[in-house]
Design brief:
single chain, alpha+beta, N-terminal domain of TfIIb, 2 domains, 39% helix, globular
């Protein structure tokens, strides 16, 4: 038997697919999706042949493309703030320093930071990238100085 596990993060959602092929070629597939708070937002499971997986994937892509635009409307800032109280708020120098300190803690995760800062996964990732913060490492002094000249 062979096994597969792939993950994808998109926006505030995280998706996993696990698949296992038995000796007869039957593929057991489970897809799960979670919001940034860990709540289950999607779950699919079933069987198919390994040869049909690519075609099923194309079918899902076609279904997503065919969805009416009204079903894919982005949430408003107010709706986003129901999930992340500080969504789209400017970052302060104090929050930047706190972000660097919390990200430096061994074992820190994006999910923990989203809760701590009241911001989305993408908001945390974008700010860490801008500040050149990496998990397990203090922020670069140059990055902090660069922010004095840049808007949030």
């Amino acid at each position: 038997m062979s096994a597969l596990h792939l993950s994808l993060s998109e926006g505030d959602h995280h998706y996993d697919i696990r698949a296992e092929v038995d000796e007869s070629g039957v593929l057991q597939v489970e897809v799960t999706g979670c919001g940034d708070g860990g709540e289950l937002i999607a779950q699919l499971q079933g069987t198919t042949s390994a040869a049909d997986l690519a075609g099923i994937g194309r079918l899902f892509l076609a279904a997503a493309a065919a969805m009416p635009a009204a079903t894919r409307v982005a949430p408003t800032v107010e709706e986003r703030r129901l999930r992340h109280a500080n969504s789209h708020q400017p970052w302060t120098p104090k929050e930047d320093a706190r972000l660097a300190a919390e990200a430096a803690i061994p074992g820190a995760t994006i999910a923990q930071l989203t809760k701590s800062f009241g911001r989305s996964r993408n908001g945390i990732k974008a700010r860490m990238e801008k500040l050149r913060i990496a998990f397990g490492q203090p922020a670069s002094p140059a990055a902090a100085g660069d922010l004095d000249q840049q808007p949030s």
